[in-house]
Write a structure and sequence with these properties.
alpha+beta, eight-stranded mixed beta sheet, 28% strand, binds N-oxalylglycine, binds manganese (II) ion
């Protein structure tokens, strides 16, 4: 009788190719619709920690395959805007500027301000994966700023001003101060509001996996520095924001068809550069829960 052999998950061969600069690595030749063994997974995990943005090219994957791959990195977070979750896949947030029958099909202003996903939660996101479904022929880039670099190069006076301090992060701030002028943000129910009570996090956090320090504030969700008068807080935050997004800290991702991009929200902040509103742009996002910043 022939011996019964159980096939181990196949070891796909693929290349890990860093981009120029400190942020961004391309994964070439990996098919995320196929099994990936532990050794392959470990290479991806390491690339994520070292380069903060991992770009998987040309992924023909289903929403379920995106969810399954995302889950290997941790628990998935369900976005508070239930109306923009993909049918039968609540782990997927639709990021889109498309309006059908007068109704937006997804979150249209995701990323209009520099931010780290879900920094307004007690447990902000470890990382997010965005899979391109439909891309505009012009614009629509996503920018990523390296917050380890931002901390490492922060002038001494600013370092001293923020060390040991915390800041408030608030989801609801996105609905105020003219940030919702184009009305993409639907009104929140009392139930939704209860899920997004403001939180405080250290301004300088330590990445739990790579051990590096990073600035952890952004114009998207940070509202004030704890213990400072309003004007001082505003002034200091403005200086931190300006330093964080200096061109030398930023990688600009120009999307290619079916890219799947996995970034580290503990190391980076990001921004949607926007595209002409007449051009359709839709991506699917999964979001992985991280630790409490320290
Ligand atoms: C997001 C986000 C940016 C973009 O989905 O979290 O910020 O370019 N998206 O769509
Ligand atoms: Mn985002």
């Amino acid at each position: 009788m022939p011996a019964v052999s159980f096939a181990a998950p196949s070891s796909q061969s693929f290349e890990v190719v860093p981009l120029a600069g400190e942020v961004g690595v391309e994964i070439i030749g990996l098919d995320l619709s196929q099994p990936l063994n532990d050794a392959g997974f470990a290479r991806i995990h390491k690339a994520h920690l070292d380069y903060h943005v991992v770009i998987f090219r040309d992924q023909r994957i289903t929403p379920q395959q995106q969810v399954d791959f995302s889950r290997r990195f941790g628990v998935l977070q369900i976005h508070v805007l239930k109306q923009f979750l993909l049918a039968n896949h609540p782990e997927i947030l639709i990021v889109s500027n498309v309006v059908e029958n007068g109704q937006p099909i997804g979150l249209g202003d995701a990323g209009k301000y520099w931010h780290s996903d879900l920094s307004y939660k007690e447990l902000p996101s470890l990382g997010s994966m965005l899979h391109a479904q439909e891309l505009p022929c012009e614009g629509g880039d996503t920018l990523f700023a390296n917050m380890h670099r931002a901390w490492d190069t922060l002038p001494q006076n600013l370092r001293e001003a923020v060390e040991g301090k915390s800041a408030v992060h608030s989801y609801v701030s996105r609905y105020s101060e003219g940030k919702n002028a184009d009305n993409w943000r639907p009104k929140l129910t009392p139930e939704q509001l209860a899920q997004v009570v403001e939180v405080t996090h250290p301004i300088v956090r330590t990445h739990p996996e790579n051990g590096r320090k990073a600035l952890f504030v952004s114009e998207g969700f940070t509202t004030r520095i704890v213990g400072l008068p309003d004007d001082e807080s505003r002034d200091l935050l403005a200086q931190l924001y300006a330093h964080s997004v200096l061109p030398e800290h930023v990688y600009r991702h120009q999307w290619q068809a079916r890219d799947m991009v996995f970034w580290d929200n503990r190391s980076l902040i990001h921004l949607a550069a926007g595209c002409p509103p007449a051009l359709r742009r839709t991506l699917y996002r999964t979001t992985i829960q991280g630790d409490a910043p320290f």
